[in-house]
């Protein structure tokens, strides 16, 4: 009885404190939030942060998320005890997890602009963000275990730092977008400098059971300057500028990147089947359009056995693409062939055996031929010739599709490794515990460890 009374008293005190804080001017509230920031670790070396890769890790993340959302009224309890969304079925979504003593105590998901768009697009207009230069990712599905919610950010801040480092170094992302409950938006505004989207508050956001939500965005290129201005003069545990931009955290395990890939897909046919057919019926609930899009992402026959069924017409359309495309972030230099040779820098964002998609800084003519120097990995250059075959309009920039007639050895090695990696994930006649052929790896790959992020030394060409 005493414990219950004490719990009620604490809740009343928290509500009273929030009401008192809300009565202050915004500028003063933000100052107080920043003074309360504490990024000092208090887990005594027991904390680990990594991408959730295994069935056990993903299950623990989805269970933690389910319990947090049910407790906040953001969803009704699901018989599985999990919150798994269609976006978690995509290779463009990455789930991060924080563990203490081997137990998952925090998670969030980073959703890149993929075939389903973004979760928040159902309620928010993000066209103003898409119109800016650079790729967009939504930060979603954040949950912290109740035991660690009142420990001064000892899990939240490391998870945010992991998210920041992963997006800036690995995920080819410039703009973050979020949709959060109005009660929490000021934390993102005051501490991390998110700016609200034009819609002030959406009263009924279906993605979280009709709860109200506020949309906001952050430009990751501008963030270091904003952090420096607000935090550089503060003591160590409150200096979020140093924490996010300069502090090395051995607790964070970044994924190894032998090539300049920009995704870290972890799903296998078995994992898709487990989470979307067995533990939940997520695939049965997809509309025909999303079913077709899923099949366009996963093309090997082993995936088809676990994906939702398609109509005959939809199945023939989904199988039209002949070569697998791989998401990349490769700096390149293009030189037009002919009398008026012109050189420009660009970034290749997708490659296949005989083609690629690139983001360019200048317009190109369809049919134009050019020579290319492409950095496929640190210290690995491909030199080849290509033809511009199409223009791909996108809110994320100016893109062109190219065809390569005779790829050089470096290009073939890179694509072979990526194809092998995808087939290994799909279990195509190989040992699922094996690794892609070592002969296809760049020489620098052997020096890359999971705790040492691959630093791209070439300047981003945008």
Q: What does this entry look like structurally?
A:
With 462 residues, the protein is of the alpha+beta class. The protein has three domains: 22-245, Aminopeptidase (3-Layer(aba) Sandwich); 267-310, no CATH class; 326-462, Thrombin, subunit H, CATH 2.40.10.220. It has helices at 2-22, 26-36, 55-72, 127-130, 156-169, 185-192, 223-231, 240-245, 269-278, 288-297, 301-304, 312-318, 409-426; strands at residues 47-51, 93-100, 103-112, 136-144, 175-180, 195-196, 202-205, 211-219, 326-336, 343-352, 355-360, 369-377, 380-394, 397-404. The strands form two sheets. Strands 1, 2, 3, 4, 5, 6, 7 and 8 form an eight-stranded mixed sheet that branches. A hairpin with a 2-residue loop joins strand 13 and strand 14. The longest helix has 21 residues, at 2-22. The protein is globular.
